[in-house]
Write a structure and sequence with these properties.
By secondary structure, the protein is an alpha+beta fold. It has 2 domains: 63 residues, OB fold (Dihydrolipoamide Acetyltransferase, E2P) (Beta Barrel); 55 residues, no CATH class. 22% of the residues lie in helices and 22% in strands. Helix 1 packs parallel to helix 2. It is globular.
Length: 139
């Protein structure tokens, strides 16, 4: 959708990590919405930014249709185990996220990329994962 195309960016502010948030347009196509609708991207908690209402509807549609990251391949958890262990391919970091952690909803588990589900903190740590610093009480 964007390779070799002229794009227009509309900066919307910064996220909690200081990264620039922007609407990305290719002519009249809002790339952000296209990615979210197809389940290729998830929203961050950015109420009031990036036309969040429109994007939230697109995300709800993708979730209901179980497209992309909302498919069973990416979301299937072990019964009773809700800790998400995320392996970052680029940095090789292994971080686990509890449901109360800030980015929990944005983390998608793909076992084919080294991600795992855990039933306890101890299980995650025994597998070489560390608790996310975005969890309450962590720094």
């Amino acid at each position: 959708m964007v390779l070799g195309k002229k794009l227009r960016l509309e900066e919307q502010g910064k996220d909690t990590f200081g990264r620039t948030l922007a609407k990305v347009w290719q002519n009249d196509l809002l790339i952000n919405k296209a990615l979210v609708t197809e389940g290729l991207a998830a929203l961050q908690q950015i109420q009031g930014k990036l036309g969040a209402d429109e994007l939230e509807l697109a995300e709800q549609e993708a979730m209901a249709a179980k497209r992309g990251i909302w498919s069973s391949e990416c979301t299937a958890e072990q019964a009773g185990c809700e800790i998400k262990g995320n392996f970052h391919q680029g940095t090789k970091d292994r971080i686990y996220h509890l449901p109360e952690c800030y980015n929990y909803k944005q983390i998608n588990i793909n076992p084919n990329e080294g991600d795992r589900w855990f039933c306890s903190d101890a299980e995650g740590e025994a597998a070489g994962f560390s608790k996310s610093k975005d969890c309450p009480g962590e720094k």
